[in-house]
Amino acid sequence: MKLSRSAIALLALTSTAFATITVPSATARPVMGNQVAAFEQHQKVGVQAITVVDHDSVFPGSQFKVKVLFAQDPDPRNFANVTKGVYPKAAGVGMDKALWDAIDHDSATVKQYATAAEVKANFTEKELAQLPAPIRSAIDNDSWQLKDRNRQDLSKVAFEDYFGWKYAVVADPNYTSDDDGLGTDGLIALEFTFQVGNDLNAQDGLHVGADFYAPTSGGIIRGDGGNWKNQLAPVTVKVRKEADVEMLTRAGDYKVGDKVTLTARVTPSQYQGNVTFNVGGQIINATINNQTATAEYTMTEETVNVRAQITGNDEFSGAISDYVRLAPKATEVPTPSSAPKPSPDAPAPEPSPAPAPSPAPSNPQTSEPETSKPQTSAPETSKPSTPPPAADEPESSSVKDYWWAIVLGILGLLGIAGGHAWINGLIPGLPRP
């Protein structure tokens, strides 16, 4: 199958666009929010803790993650009550009652990081820089591995109400009171995922923080000080309603120079503010009016991805839309089949018969161009000609057919005469019928 040059150009442009542009899937679209974290050194038992919440806000009906990390400080001068390594009986997070009540306890999950690569992927350099030097060096060199003595039982997240303080924890299945446990060469790093119900009321000042149950140290951190919020690395989060933004502009091909209208729809209707369109790195802002924001983009020769974004405020979360792809239309190359037909008034092409000569001047002998001289013979195209014979028929086939007819006629006459002679007994030696 042959393709025209315009079709080939269009295929090449389309192939290049798909080879260089990757559109994120809808399921990967993030809910906007800033990660929040806290670090704390607990003076009583010498445990360092880091708490990280993946968003600065939690939303009714959505999920949020809490990551906690525990390390033993190797310097005894930094804690008052420990003569050997701290062994955790349980590790997890504590939280305010409003958040604890809103979490679906049955769907909560937890995983434990077992390698240095996992720890570095989930905690920032700034956070890890506060860990004891031996552990920090082991993580930097990718030599740290989870010790068996520090493995937690991840089969179930236990939600405990301890004298009014709320905790989600996992227990150590290998716990013994005389073990070194966490020690100065180990880490416990956990990631909890919680599903929040729709009944979580919007409010500020909810707390989430690391919880470490260490009976071998002579003190239980969760009860020390009368309130878990005064313990390990609490983080304050807000509760917001979730907003969303959707691109309504149609993905497709547009002519270079065309004005493309960018349109986004925002929900819920109570959200007010601006929509930011990111057009291949170019930022265009538009005001929301009746849940819709529009802006104008002039199409260039480059294929671009466009997405809309709204920022969070005191009541609503921020959000980012899916990508919409805008591509320039391919320039069509004329082909013989699409070339314009000549005008009836245009001069005839050279292969056509010459036009009629113009009136001869007074002296045709000296001034008449050679092309205007009268033709001495008719053009070849005007001569009568016989159509060429068919490819499967010799040129003299009509003559041969004529002689065959003559031969067959003679043989027929001879047959008639012989029959008549036989009937009348005119053939000697041959009896009559």
From TrEMBL:
InterPro entries: Ig-like_fold (IPR013783)
Signal peptide (residue range): 1-19
Listed GO biological process terms: carbohydrate metabolic process
Superkingdom in the source lineage: Bacteria
Transmembrane segments: 402-423
Keywords of this entry: Membrane, Signal, Transmembrane, Transmembrane helix
Comp. bias intervals (Polar residues): 365-383
Compositionally biased spans, kind Pro residues: 337-362
Region of interest called Disordered, as start-end residue ranges on this chain: 330-397
Protein name stated in the entry: Bacterial Ig-like domain-containing protein
